[in-house]
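From the thread on structure requests for the teaching lab: each student submitted one protein with a one-line request. Submission from student K.M.:

"Model 28S rRNA (cytosine-C(5))-methyltransferase from Halcyon senegalensis, tokens only."
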Amino acid sequence: MALYSAAAAVLEGLERGDGGLKSLVYNSRFPHVRQLYALFFETLRYSSVLEKLLAGAALLQAEKKLPPQLAKVLVYDLLFGKGLKCGGRWKALARRHRARLEAELARLKVQQKVSRNEDLLAPAQAASPAASQVPRYVRVNTLKTCVEDVIDFFKRQGYSYLGKAASVEELKAISGKKFLLDLHLPELLVFPPQTDFHDNLLYTSGHIILQDKASCLPAFLLAPAAGSHVIDACAAPGNKTSHLAAILKNKGQIFAFDVDTKRLATMNTMLMRAGVTGFQLAQQDFLTVDPRDPKYSKVTHILLDPSCSGSGMVTRVLQEEPAPSAQRLQALATFQRKVLSHALSFPALQRLVYSTCSLHQEENEDVVQAVLREQGSAFGLVDAFPLWPCRGVAAFPGAESCLRASPADTLTHGFFVAVLELFFEGAAAPSTMPVAAENPQQGAGTEPGAAPKKRKRKKQRVK
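Reply posted by the TA:
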């Protein structure tokens, strides 16, 4: 019942204008944030349809003590979701009206001349075809288990393992109770879209992390060696931080910053569940962190994923600002340039990954270009992950060294990643790219934190 009550409370808060989607979800204090967000988002997406069903079935008139927001959540999960797997007395109440609600749903489909539930949605509410094809990605948490054991677990649960994917098209075709090993990332399993593991034992025990593939790229490409000191500059909700810890094998030190107390509390719970040690959380704006503080004198790697427009998220269709204004993009880009410049000022820094979940050049290539111009010859772009199919747009010479991701091209959320390394005049510094990124034949047995193959790599300097 707690899940349904929390989703109803978030829905009510949004209707009152108490805050944005993410802030309301995080402030709910519900322990499983992604599960709550998924249920809330889908209920909101079907809101107009649910209102018609409630009115047609006269449910609120029959059950006067049932709050309308809770009624929407219950009816969504009853008719469109997982079928009310929890809910106590409200579950029994909704099921009493199931026949009437199903009849009203059938009548609505006939009236609108559609056969699928998704077709009842207005065009602005329906997920794009590309977005609906994004698989469920499951990152194996190597701090607690290994890929082989997780594969065996899912086999025992009735899933069929199809081996390592050979192409993105193969990921797109996956269906039913089947799963694959990702073709790019060695500890990422791929299941059909909308597969729900929030109640799965491996998820609740921290053995697997539900994380989009594009979101796995920053830590994977940062690739700090075990024992490194690393900063996660804008860390909450913590998936990338836990990924860094797995790459470090819990050897070394992670400094993680975020300004929101409640997001940090949620993150701390998540990291503890994932078995992460050797981390320090700080409620602090990263821009106020002093690079000369002796505490950070050994920081050689920084993961920087700053606030952005979020335009690459497939759920962005229901956000308050689906199309950020030019002024909003300019303000974000100004902040992003400032925080990237600040990150590059740490004295022992050798490698940095800058990433956003934005599709806008203003927040991506333009930011990198502007900061590299300011830095002169100090840092250069690494030609990251040559096997990745989508590259940065040609905003400047060398932009193709950056990575882009999208639902249509890579079956992920929209994302941007740039890898920067300290530049030594006269010679390219050896790359610390993971072996798996360079040699696809290594497969699942290669860990992102494995010892890197040293080789010279040309860096791009922006003029």
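TA comment: Residues 1-120 form one domain. Residues 326-343 form the longest helix (18 residues).
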